[in-house]
Amino acid sequence: MAATLALLIALTTGSPVWAQDTAADERGLCDNWTWPPLGTKFCDSDAACVGMGPTGGDLACGGCMPSSCTCDPVTGGPKVCSRDCLAFCHDEQGRIG
User: Fold this and answer.
1) What is the tens place of the pLDDT at every residue in 49-64?
2) 20 part of a folded domain
């Protein structure tokens, strides 16, 4: 009864529910986890990002990315990250080149 109630609450509140009685880490959302994200190039100036764009264009150096994060088995995204703030090469929208 309690599991059914929890499932109903999760479904009505929009919580991610995949299958009743399935532990989050059994869904495999962290199986291929890598941090920093693939393609990340940390930098200290725009010069480090010259020619790094997908079509060979230049990217900007900036933003703030932690050097280390663990995976959240419920969402598949970052859970706990280091407090450092590293600049990385990115396009005008802030996406990794």
Assistant:
1) 999 988 889 999 999 9
2) no
**Could you tell me if 52 and 83 are in contact, meaning their C-beta atoms sit under 8 angstroms apart?**
no
Number of Cβ within 10 Å of residue 61's Cβ equals 20
pTM of the model: 0.66
Angle at 63 between CA 60 and CA 65, to 5 degrees: 125
No. of H helices and E strands in the chain?
A: 1, 4
Range of the domain at 46: 26-90
Q: Burial of 23 by CB count in 10 Å (0-12 exposed, 13-18 middle, 19+ buried)?
A: exposed
What tokens does 74 get?
Answer: 């419920």
d(CA 9, CA 42): 42
Assigned domain for 43 exists:
yes
